[in-house]
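Sanity check

After download, print the first record. It should look like this:
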Amino acid sequence: MNALEVYINEVERQLDRKVKIIRSAKDGEYYGRYDESGQHPSPFAKFLERRGIYAQYTMPGTPQQNGVSERRNQTLLDMVRSMLSNSCLPVSLWMYALKTSMYLNCGRVGNPI
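Expected structure tokens:
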């Protein structure tokens, strides 16, 4: 949860805008659980509520409902694979290749993730 909070604070500070909506799968770890006594929101859902961020949930197992981010993820992974396959670097540097891909693909102002 701390990583998300740090990320949201950074995005809001850099872009001088408030995060209004976050979309995620309607899985238990993000959405919470429902039982006979009602809905029990997860810490993620409670965090979004405290910040006034609207949660949009997609159905679990349907990446088609989140096409923009799925395409972005695919582009980043393709870049990482290309970088690592065309170099003699070990796979242990995968995270650095991903960070570099994110910077090259998304790091420009006006093109946030």
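If your output differs, re-run the checksum step. Summary of this record's structure: The longest strand covers residues 21-25.
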